[in-house]
Sequence to fold (255 residues):
Amino acid sequence: MSSPFDFTGATAVILGGATGLGLAMAEGLAAHGASVCIASRSDERARHAAATLAERFGTPCHGYAADAASEDAVNRLRDHVAELFGGRVNIAIDSAGINVRNPIDQISLGEFEAVQRVNITGAFLFARAMHPLLRASGWGRLINVASIFGSRSFPFRTSYAASKGAMLQLTRTLAIEWAAENITVNAISPGWFITDMTRPVLDNPEAYRQFCATIPMARFAEPHEIATACLFLASPASSFVTGAEIVVDGGSMVT
Fold:
């Protein structure tokens, strides 16, 4: 416990790790010595992010193309990671996600199902694929990036809120199911962060002002502010924490 955030020798895979919060968590783990595989729908983005982190931190980083919505793609990611890391993964993070903002009568069934396919079916596929690699490692951490929208919501968030609420229940169920295997399963629920997903709000000064008025800290977070929650849940310091949700939202949930 003298160096709880020393990840030298640990292996990590981050689905949705090429941009935004996923990249910030990959960066945090690489900076503390972990060997990292970044998976993204874009092979170019994944490889570029991995090369950048490897150059910055001198740790092994790999990029791989994987679509969270595809069972075959997620299973290929599992096989690739197993080959990279000798059949063992210590830390698996699902940070893949998409959003559709519309009132319910303007959301097509296809749009709704596409959000569920990436956000919750993808989380299921990723967890199922990573389970044997986490079990083989001797100690494992599955971290799901949920959202404050899993517990509260705003208008026009039907698809996204439904998917993130389901992700929290998936997290709690797997925490119980895998507890005896020395695998913890937890969720990080971000509030408002500066990412591509929040770009429509950031590009509208009045909308940004209105949203900041609901945040006690009166601002959106920078992506790097998610990293310490990730490091804690990935580290030995969280060995008795499972089925939990860490909210990183500047106080939004308590207003």
